[in-house]
Automatic annotation (TrEMBL):
The keyword Zinc-finger does not apply. It comes from the Bacteria. InterPro entries: DUF3021. It comes from Aedoeadaptatus acetigenes. This is DUF3021 domain-containing protein. Pfam families: DUF3021.
């Protein structure tokens, strides 16, 4: 039951992060966006946002499942992180094509670079959070 709860929480985190990124893009563009018009126009009214939220939640779910699968494996830390990044990148490209984020090869490149930057910002934040927790535990053990 714990795995289902953690998967659900990760899914919701993906929805939240995706919605925030979409909101920041809207602010940057100076307009409210619900999605790419080429995608939104192909979906019945009201469903585009729901589909997008499920896709965003997928990021959290895929990330969690990668952690469950790779977290128990013995191997180089950076190799496991590299696999995690690659799997999320593949999911990102799949979602990008499905939601019609990409208009040409240049937009794919810029989107992948943006994804990598966001991934590493989140990774660094988690790294420092975990590092502080380990330092706190070490202090308590002394």
């Amino acid at each position: 039951m714990k795995i289902v709860r953690n998967a659900f929480v990760s899914f919701l985190a993906g929805v939240g992060i995706g919605a925030l990124i979409e909101a920041f893009i809207s602010i940057g563009m100076g307009m409210n966006i619900v999605g790419v018009p080429e995608f939104v126009d192909t979906i019945a009214p009201g469903y585009a946002k729901i589909i997008q939220c499920f896709c965003y939640g997928g990021f959290g779910l895929v990330s969690y499942l990668c952690g469950e699968f790779f977290g128990n494996r013995k191997g180089a830390f950076y190799l496991m992180q590299g696999l995690h990044f690659f799997i999320l990148l593949v999911y990102f490209v799949f979602v990008g094509f499905y939601l019609k984020w990409f208009t040409d090869p240049t937009s794919v490149l810029y989107s992948v670079l943006s994804f990598a930057a966001i991934y590493f910002i989140i990774w660094i934040a988690i790294y420092f959070k975990e590092k502080r927790m380990v330092e706190k535990m070490n202090r308590q053990l002394k």
